[in-house]
Amino acid sequence: MTQTAAAKAADVLLGVRRNPFGANVPGSETHPAVTIPDAVRRCRWIAVDINATGFGLFLVSPSMERARLVPCFDSDYPRVSLHTKFVSGSNGEDLVQHTRVSSLPCWWSSDARSASATTLPALDWAGRISPLVPDSSGIAFPVYAERGQCGLVIFYGTDISLPQAQLHEIHARCFALFSAVAVMRPGDSGKVPSISKRELECLKLTANGFTSEDIAKLLKLSVHTANQYLTNTTQKLNAVNRMHAVAKALRMGLIE
Amino acid sequence: MDSGRFGHMTSLAAQHQDTGIPAVKLTSRGDLTGFLMQLTATIGADSYMLVAILHDQDKSDARILASNWIYDAIELAGHQLIANLATSALAVAPGIRPRGIVTAHAPALGSVLSGEEAKLLHVLGHCEIYALKLNVGRQRLFILFSAAVPGQIDIGALMKAQVECCYALSQAPALVAAASMQDPLSDRERECLFWVSEGKTTDEVAVILGVSSNTVNSYITHAIRKFSASNRAMAVATAIRSGII
Question: Does this UniProt record's set of keywords contain Cytoplasm (chain A) (predicted)?
Fold first, then answer.
């Protein structure tokens, strides 16, 4: 294959991957990123497409007590970039409040002469915020996943190119990326613990308010067996007690 | 909360011309209807229905916020069927390619629609239905788009419309909050329940929040009562299912 032909083939392949709106291939971006490095790679594709020089993915804690952004990964993965340190400090606090109530993207730009300073203000829907990182420009996309998780995908760069027509698509890709990340937990490599059908059944009933005695009666087991199933699940999920196991299983989507 | 705990965003918008003024501002139900009608036409669909799903133990119920379905269609289909459509596995989050439900081929989708229900929707002109998940901040809503002719809806435009809906509804938090589910818990109750869901015991939560164990227990009891749950595990599950924690 000649070099141009190879480049063309790669272009087609990447084009399909990068452009879910135009793609006719089912499952292109729906294919889940299973590990953090996968997710970093996917995020880099998005960054390349809008000509951003850096990126970061942050989580918003469901607890109102925690007012700051929790970093998940950034463009310096596995290290942590300086940008991330600013964003996860007090600079990001307003953005946490915003993300809880609104899905609108936010941008900032502190250098009036940069290309980003003309591109970003031209965007409909996106609102201006005070700079997250001093002397920089960037745009933050609020993202949400299945179990109420919420977070932000942030891109930095002085030459961000993001035409209005692409805004929705880029945001949609951030959504898809986040839902893949949200089912992972730091420290696990994305593998779902193998929990038997019976164990899941017990856990589901626990989530619906049944006690071990109720479950034993319902599934025609002894109370000890029901308890054993629940203990197994709790251990497999690396949880400390039943409540924790139920919460983890729901958040991972193991039970509905 | 509506006019902006994100205060400087709105105030800056007033001062500067270059702040990316929103494409539409929804201030009344009329605006919402106009916006959705236009969006429906843009993607090649005939009908829309915006719903919030209320979780009640293991049952879910649909609350319709806006729709141009004919009255009879809603009456005949019933809220349960609408809730099933919206929460089926076919309803996708933004960024995931949606799949339509072709009501003429309903037997293939037995779990979502029964044959009878599919036939009913078909007769009423909902021949192909797409269910999409929306996020307005942490609030989850659903929108159904349907067309009288399968294949009439442009998928690319549909995926764009999904994000557009999230944006437009974020501009109108009052409209959304008024009609959809309310978070019944107080801040303290929510915090306690969150820590319980993280596997903390009553004593640990008491230390974290700096109150006594009795106080923590009483917050949790209140939360359990508000959800009419039978124990802690169920209260935690209900709160996670409805996206409160």
Answer: no
